[in-house]
């Protein structure tokens, strides 16, 4: 961490010198492994793996001591309740209440708690004030719907003794087969097992027990010892910090198997391949489990299961023609082991078809066992039901999906004005400029440095002239300094996180000594909301938005660079229980604050977060943190962004150019060409790097970067439509191969090319130095056309070599799609609002195509009252038509009026048939018109391998109206 904290200027110089010198000697920078725990250094991880190994070595899951008491089972209104007992020995049993909820969506929730802790019937050590229950509020932060219980779920009467079967799901095609002893659940779809819980017998809930401080009279050492590894039950030390663990051991673990599935995806955030690797060794596999413990990992490494800044414990398993998923709703430190092997012959596992089993083992340090099982069968259906539970991606403002220019730091308001001016001078589009921590008055958030930013308002007014925005950073650590009103208020109102003794917690971050706002506290949210009001956060205007960084939280002198686990949050929950939610509570509060900056000014907030959890997609965008200006980091960003999309948080991107280090001009250029395919597109750079705004790159680089950015702007209508789709059904914005071609096994693990929404645009970013061509994999037998010159690529199940000299972005269009664009260059997306559209109709083999377009004001929530245009374009029977996709609401008519003059200025039909050769016009029919009018058509024949195309200029049709253009 220390290397990127600015100290004094002299120190900066010294450090910069040191960095330069070390760069000359050391080939690359490396994560400090010693700062983060490996599994064997994390008590419960070590215990959980040992438990799994001991069960496995006994050869059968039958040894599992967990039994569902048949006589306790009740099934009422789509919910089964009962008690699982864990047998400790002949005399002792632990009671674990079980609730299995069958939801209307076809998802099942399995929840297990511990009776003694529910009743608070336990003793805490060290006079701790912590809550006694297992943490039971994750769902309060994460779940926003989808919990209606199924009315059709029913117990099947014909089950054998010791087994309960419940049919549910669409047409009763799903079944949960619950074996009572040992407790085990198999989830079946159409008679086939897809997901198994505790099939391997790794279910383990560490029950509460009192610490035996000393030997009872007459007991010797060996009698006190159990055969469990108690080493880390009561205390755990790492990196000079001792965790007091007042509640003792309380971890929860379970194996979740996917019989017949060879790929699992998701559980971000890891810098690794999209298809997750095995974690118990083997050629090219990991030896550590994937870890989920939100952390500020300085100079993170690639191809690693190490934890990073955010975590979403949601996984999709995929095999030919079937996708299933699980959500492990637990906010404590979590690890996931993955092993793949040949199918076994469990008698309960019906009709398993695939060749490989993927077996996963999940364990968390505390909390309830709370698992959701999704039976698919498609990735789309899983994204949708996951989104119904955790919320869909926020529909962002238009500007938020355009280009963001950031660095640490733009140093004065003059500097900002100058950068803004230069972008215009060089005719490079951008929408947002960002201020990192140095804009503040000595790291006191909600202030501007009066010397360097004397006129923040003037600066924002200049940006506003081109409809541009400002984003300022606000971190959760509040400087501990006398006479700083924000910290005084936070202390007075007791809104900060507390240490284990219940006193205000103090640690180190950018400002030095700091306290942390506790956004688990509703009063803290109210207070935080007020801080953003214009009269409080002086100097900000309506075109300013917020970046929440360091919200893991990052604590420079804390264990693993974060807070001690025995710190206390609102409600006396230990930090251990809520750690992975922490970042999300901050952005919840900031989102809320941006909604309430001024009465009557209701615009969609924009918040960027570094730390996140399931549900954070409702509030804003994420980025992959502090990457490096290297080719392999560029390459790694794609699996990371794709996996985030699979896990329901698709508004994702990586620092374009790389955060640490200075990219070569070629790397910078390629990064822009690749970055225009991140849903969140922002360039950013470390304070010690050289300036690298695109106009500084010199030719030919500047021109090429400009073209890449203009491509993003040209396609903004398609991107916005993809964001809209994500906001209503959870679809990823950029989609991996398996998502689009779920039966093409060769493509399942491909994570270096992507489709943009449902547009059929297939991009393969160049991520290697000196490339002049690239191989793109095509799964299907459709024609694919080069986006720029219509070169045809055809042939299913193989790769095709596409020219990719530096100035070329490898981008294909799959036949069968209609892509909406705006072709006029403007300085920012806001200035494109009233521009006419171009439609690219890419015909498929049958001579057909379809596509959609979603448009709204890009700013307010009026779309929720119907202020939008949603069109379906169809090309069939030689005619292109535009139909309404069901726009209606109180504000529809008013909105359509504002859009009344926005038209389609050009239609390009790619793959235009030979019969059009002599055609010079098409017939345009507007809805309701008696007769059509003619528009000119130019036909261009096939040239070599370049497809034919036809252009209709100025067809005089409106974007908000139904119409038809006859090409016959
Ligand atoms: C860490 C963030 O990851 C980085 O993007 C930012 O520039 C620094 N903090 C300084 O705020």
CATH H-level superfamily title of the domain at 40-57 and 65-142 and 150-208 and 236-390: glycosyl hydrolase (family 31)
| Radius of gyration of CA atoms, rounded to a whole number | 29 Å
Strand content: 25-35%
The number of distinct helices, counting runs of at least 4 residues, comes to 18
**Low-confidence blocks of residues:** 1-9, 19-27, 221-225
Main beta sheet strand tally, sense and closure: 10 strands, antiparallel
CATH architecture classification name of the domain at 40-57 and 65-142 and 150-208 and 236-390:
Sandwich
Shape: globular
Distance between the termini: 66 Å
Helix content: 10-25%
User: Could you say which structural class the secondary elements and strand pairing correspond to?
Assistant: alpha+beta
CATH domain class of the domain at 40-57 and 65-142 and 150-208 and 236-390: Mainly Beta
């Amino acid at each position: 961490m220390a290397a990127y904290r600015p100290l004094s200027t002299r120190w900066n110089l010294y450090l910069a010198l040191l960095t330069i010198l070390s760069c000359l000697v050391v080939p690359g920078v490396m994560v400090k492994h010693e700062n983060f725990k490996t599994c064997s250094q994390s008590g419960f991880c070590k215990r959980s793996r040992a438990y799994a190994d001991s069960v496995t070595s006994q050869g059968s899951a039958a040894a599992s001591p967990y039994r569902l008491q048949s006589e306790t089972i009740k099934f009422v209104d789509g919910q089964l309740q009962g008690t699982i007992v864990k047998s400790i020995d002949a005399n002792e049993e632990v009671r674990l209440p079980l609730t299995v909820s069958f939801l209307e969506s076809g998802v099942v929730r399995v929840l297990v708690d511990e009776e003694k802790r529910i009743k608070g019937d336990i003793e805490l050590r060290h006079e701790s004030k912590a809550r006694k229950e297992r943490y039971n509020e994750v769902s309060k932060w994460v779940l926003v719907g989808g919990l209606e219980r199924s009315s059709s779920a029913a117990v099947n009467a014909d089950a054998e003794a010791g087994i309960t079967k419940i049919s549910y799901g669409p047409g009763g095609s799903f079944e949960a087969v619950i074996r009572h002893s040992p407790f085990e659940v198999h989830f079946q779809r159409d008679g086939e097992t897809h997901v198994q819980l505790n099939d391997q017998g790794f279910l383990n809930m560490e029950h509460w027990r009192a610490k035996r401080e000393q030997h009872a009279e007459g007991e010797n050492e060996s009698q006190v010892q159990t055969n469990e590894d108690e080493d880390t039950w009561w205390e755990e030390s790492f990196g000079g910090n001792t965790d007091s663990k007042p509640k003792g051991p309380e971890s929860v673990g379970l194996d979740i198997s996917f019989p017949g599935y060879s790929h699992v995806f998701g559980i971000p955030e890891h810098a690794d391949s999209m298809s997750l690797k095995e974690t118990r060794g083997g050629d090219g596999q990991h030896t550590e489990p994937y870890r989920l413990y939100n952390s500020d990992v300085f100079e993170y490494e690639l191809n690693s299961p190490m934890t990073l800044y955010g975590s979403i414990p949601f996984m999709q398993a995929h095999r030919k023609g079937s996708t299933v998923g699980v959500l492990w709703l637990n906010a404590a430190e979590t690890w996931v082991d993955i092993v793949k092997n040949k199918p076994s012959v469990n008698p309960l596992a019906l009709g398993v078809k695939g060749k490989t089993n993927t077996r996963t083992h999940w364990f968390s340090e505390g909390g309830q066992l709370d698992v959701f099982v999704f039976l698919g069968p498609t990735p789309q259906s899983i994204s949708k039901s996951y989104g119904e539970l955790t919320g869909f991606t926020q529909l962002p403002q238009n500007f938020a999906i355009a280009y963001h220019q950031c660095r640490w730091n733009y140093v004065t308001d003059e500097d900002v004005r100058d950068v803004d001016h230069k972008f215009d001078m060089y005719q490079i589009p951008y929408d947002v400029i960002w201020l990192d921590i140095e804009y503040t008055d000595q790291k006191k958030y909600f202030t501007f440095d009066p010397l360097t930013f004397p006129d923040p308002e003037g600066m924002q007014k200049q940006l506003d002239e081109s409809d541009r925005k400002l984003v300022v950073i606000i971190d959760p650590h509040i400087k501990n300094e006398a006479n700083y009103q924000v910290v005084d208020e936070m202390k007075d109102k007791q809104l900060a996180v507390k240490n284990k003794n219940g006193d205000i917690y103090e640690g180190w971050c950018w400002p030095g000594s700091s306290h942390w706002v506790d956004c688990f506290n509703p009063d803290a949210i109210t207070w935080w909301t007020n801080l953003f009001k214009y009269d409080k956060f002086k100097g900000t205007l309506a075109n300013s938005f917020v970046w929440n960084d360091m919200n893991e939280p990052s604590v420079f002198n804390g264990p693993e660079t974060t807070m001690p686990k025995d710190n206390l949050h609102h409600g006396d929950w230990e930090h251990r229980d809520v750690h992975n939610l922490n970042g999300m509570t901050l952005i919840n509060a900031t989102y809320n604050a941006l909604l309430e900056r001024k009465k009557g000014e209701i615009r969609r907030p924009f918040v960027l977060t570094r730390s996140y959890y399931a549900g954070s997609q409702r509030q804003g965008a994420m980025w992959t943190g502090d990457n490096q200006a290297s080719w392999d980091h560029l390459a790694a960003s794609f699996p990371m962004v794709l996996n985030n999309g699979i896990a329901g948080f698709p508004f994702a991107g990586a620092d374009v150019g790389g955060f640490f280090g200075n990219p070569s001009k070629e790397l910078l250029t390629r990064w822009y060409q690749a970055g225009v395919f991140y849903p969140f597109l922002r360039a950013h750079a470390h304070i010690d790097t050289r300036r690298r705004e695109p106009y500084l790159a010199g030719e030919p680089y500047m021109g090429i970067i400009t073209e890449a950015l203009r491509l993003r702007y040209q396609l903004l209508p398609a991107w916005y439509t993809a964001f809209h789709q994500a906001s209503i059904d959870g679809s990823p914005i950029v989609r991996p191969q398996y998502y689009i071609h779920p039966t093409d096994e060769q493509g399942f693990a491909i994570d270096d090319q992507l489709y943009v929404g449902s547009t059929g645009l297939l991009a393969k970013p160049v991520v290697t130095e000196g490339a002049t061509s690239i191989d793109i994999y095509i799964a299907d037998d459709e024609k694919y056309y080069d986006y720029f010159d219509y070169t045809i690529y055809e042939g299913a199940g193989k790769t095709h070599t596409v020219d990719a000299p530096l100035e070329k972005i490898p981008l294909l269009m799959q036949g069968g799609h209609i892509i909406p664009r705006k072709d006029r260059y403007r300085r920012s997306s806001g200035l494109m609002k009233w521009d006419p559209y171009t439609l690219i109709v890419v015909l498929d083999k049958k001579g057909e195509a379809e596509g959609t377009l979603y448009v709204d004001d890009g700013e307010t929530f009026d779309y929720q009252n119907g202020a939008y245009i949603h069109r379906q374009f169809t090309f069939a029977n030689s005619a292109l038509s535009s139909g309404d996709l069901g726009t209606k609401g109180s504000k529809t008519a008013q909105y359509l009026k504002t859009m009344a003059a926005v038209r389609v200025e050009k239609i390009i039909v790619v793959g235009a048939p030979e019969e059009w050769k002599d055609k010079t016009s098409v017939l345009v029919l507007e809805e309701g018109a008696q007769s059509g009018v003619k528009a000119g058509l130019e036909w261009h024949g096939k040239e070599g391998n370049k497809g034919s195309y036809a252009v209709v200029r100025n067809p005089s049709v409106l974007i908000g109206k139904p119409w038809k253009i006859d090409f016959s």
